Amino acid sequence: MKTAIFSFFFSALIYLSSENCNIIMCTLHARTMSQSGMTTADIDPTLCPYLRIKFVEWLNDALDVDRRVSDIYPWLWDTKAKNPSIKIVLTFYNIVGDDKFYEMYRTPERRLKFIPLLVTYVRNNKFDGVELDLDMGFGLRSPERYHIDRWADFVEDVQKALVDEATRSGKPKIVLFGRIDERAEYLYPFYNVPRMYRHSDLINLEAWASYSQRVGPRFNISLTSTHHCKIYKTNENDKNCIEYYVNSVMAKGGIKEKTILSLYLMATFFYEYKYNLDPTILPNYDRIQFNNYGEVCEYKKGRSNVTRVYEQCPIAMVGRNVIYYDDEISMVEKIKYVKKNGLAGFELLDMSADDFSGNCGKGKFPLMRTVLEECRKP
Prior knowledge:
Blueprint: H1 2-18, E1 23-29, H2 30-36, E2 50-59, E3 62-65, H3 67-70, H4 73-82, E4 87-95, H5 99-106, H6 108-124, E5 129-135, H7 148-169, E6 175-181, H8 193-199, E7 202-206, E8 214-215, H9 242-251, E9 259-263, E10 267-273, E11 284-291, H10 293-300, E12 305-309, E13 313-318, E14 321-324, H11 328-340, E15 345-348, H12 366-376
Parallel strand pairs: 1-2, 1-15, 2-4, 4-5, 5-6, 6-7, 7-9, 9-15
Antiparallel strand pairs: 2-3, 8-11, 10-11, 10-14, 12-13, 13-14
InterPro entries: Chitinase_II/V-like_cat, Chitinase_insertion_sf, GH, Glyco_hydro18_cat, Glycosyl_Hydrlase_18
GO biological process, one term: carbohydrate metabolic process
GO molecular function: chitin binding; chitinase activity
């Protein structure tokens, strides 16, 4: 019976994820919502078949939940009741450098004691899925804080627990999402990609292009030679684009049909610094802030020149400010890439990066509306 149930779940998930651009996910980050002023009243849930909320974390063998996160649960439940097809997902997020967390998940006895608490919490709070997110950073190379296979062990045991819970309860299996951050070469050795894909139902892959915090003539970086929305490499050695990051994961054992392209769409504002007292010092542009698409539209109204580079990536020049951002045109190109390459779907990594106020004159959340419309096209 157990084998039959597991086979049913596995077949259903493969069918679900094998459709190009079938998974469309929006992420609610309670902290940036409070900072930006976006509230649940702004959200049109019909734009997001999957709603993910970030996050709960481990603390002393228990779950620690920020009040700002749990306060959103009733809205999620009500939204799901009104829109039964919507799936809600909870992120279990921790930092790799936490040696106490590592001690828990590397020890089989402690790991197997904690995991049922996580599964029960996810089920009791009516989530359809859970994502495991280990934030890569300080501590990766310390054997006291991280080991590539111990994290894969944790992912595998969570999946087993989810299957067992569904078998016992007779309820639909909670979907397990993994997360891989592939945006920096030094992270490459720190994921067991084949095991992550084998034991996760779907993988959210962070793969947007990065660029220097300083650009311009002084640093020999042209204003139009870089952009976070860049999709394809411009030469064989180009490693700073979505295509390179996705292909590198696939080469290590990733599965396209289980891969959700996860992008951070916050616009980047640069300010030009000129050195009038010393004309031999070339001008440079320093990053001064991130902001959402609505603020970009508000800022550049009637006073900007827009240049497009690469795959329709817009760059606005307003006075001494240069803004790298995404708009509806560049989003179409991203979804074309997702569909062309047979990826499972697309995730907006932070929903507050969209125009949630309607400043662009195209209704609220025009970027996500574009994603939904393009994904649904044959």
